[in-house]
Design goal:
single chain, 340 residues, alpha/beta, eight-stranded mixed sheet, 11 helices, 31% helix, signal, Mitochondrial protein C2orf69 homolog, C2orf69_mit
């Protein structure tokens, strides 16, 4: 989270009027670049031709919608037969939840605070993740609200105030982060005409062959991953949701933060015990911007507690403090997206 203090770049994520109670959701026009013809010569190597914007995709409830970016795997240079085989067999997906300020490129370009960080727009992040996870479908989920064009709010996944500070809750069979994500992916795959789409509901027979899922949260986006951890005990016991959870291979927390005064990292021992037992590979990548800020010392303490508790329960989370010998900066906060 770009957060909790005033910085030279002009962000003030906590000291802004806490009494604000409403905001309209932002909607952006579709850029022409995202509608490049599928027949464009593959030899151009232009990744924009593999990027598709899906607007107002419904989740578990029709009124709960999120915009999505989908970056398809790069099949350039493969034979026609090989490409078809890849298309039919590859069902591996990465889902990314962004932080504050980040938005569609054309939205950021119109905002003074966003324009200076265009290299971290949702489109550019999709390309970065495409290099990090080749041969996988990359999904970037845009927060349903961007208050003041900078505060991302994931209220479709977790109850949140206008600034995106979450109120976590346990699993519910008909709502919550897992239910919304599953339905969102299902409807997104259908709209994108992907082969073997995930079904929005159902048991093991509703999960397509070879389907796997990697979840990545950056900064404010980590609140979605945290909510999923709180839902794990109930979700693992639910026969309809459990098969979906078993297809989640990895969860990456990248420099998590939000404007609340606690619960930046999950510290509840019972739910962390469930996470440790889930079989999911856990990764925590941080920078001094979040975990070494003396004005928000609880963030570093909670991160340490998160790691220590998981290790006590037998998990082996991978962890790294990036740029530890450099001064804390927003630029390095963003750069963890490239370095993890």
């Amino acid at each position: 989270m770009l957060a909790a203090r005033t910085v030279a770049a002009g962000f003030t994520l906590i000291a802004v009027a806490k009494a604000m109670t409403s905001v309209a959701a932002t909607t952006s026009p579709e850029p022409r670049e995202l509608h490049a013809s599928a027949s464009r010569d593959a030899r151009t190597g232009n990744p924009w031709r593999r990027l598709q914007k899906l607007l107002a995709v419904p989740g578990d409830v029709p009124s709960r919608v999120n915009d999505l970016l989908l970056l398809r795997p790069d099949t350039d240079g493969q034979s026609d037969a090989g490409s078809e085989k890849e298309k039919s067999s590859n069902n591996k997906h990465v889902v990314f939840f962004h932080g504050d300020i980040q938005n569609f490129q054309e939205e950021m370009a119109m905002q003074p605070e966003g324009a200076q960080w265009l290299s971290w727009s949702l489109e550019q992040v999709a390309f970065i993740l495409g290099q990090r996870f080749p041969h996988r479908y990359i999904w970037v989920v845009r927060a349903s609200r961007m208050y003041l064009h900078k505060f991302s709010c994931y209220h479709n996944f977790v109850e949140s105030n206008m600034f995106g500070a979450p109120e976590h809750s346990p699993f519910s069979a008909d709502s919550g982060a897992f239910c919304h994500l599953r339905a969102l992916l299902s409807h997104g795959m259908e709209q994108a005409n992907l082969p073997s789409p995930l079904q929005p509901q159902g048991g093991a027979d509703s999960i397509p062959p070879g389907f796997s899922l990697t979840l990545v949260g950056f900064s404010k986006g980590c609140v979605v991953l945290n909510q999923m951890v709180y839902e794990l005990p109930g979700a693992r016991a639910d026969p309809q949701m459990s098969p979906f959870l078993k297809r989640i291979s990895d969860m990456f927390w990248l420099d998590g933060g939000h404007p609340g005064g606690s619960e930046t990292w999950v510290t509840d021992k019972q739910v962390l015990k469930e996470l440790a037992a889930s079989g999911v590979s856990i990764h925590a990548h941080v920078t001094p911007y979040e975990v070494c800020d003396p004005m928000r010392a609880w963030v570093g303490r909670e991160h340490g507690h998160f790691i220590k508790t998981l290790e006590e329960f037998g998990a082996c989370p991978s962890k790294k403090l990036h740029f530890k010998d450099e001064p804390p900066s927003i630029e390095n906060h963003f750069r963890v997206i490239q370095e993890f």
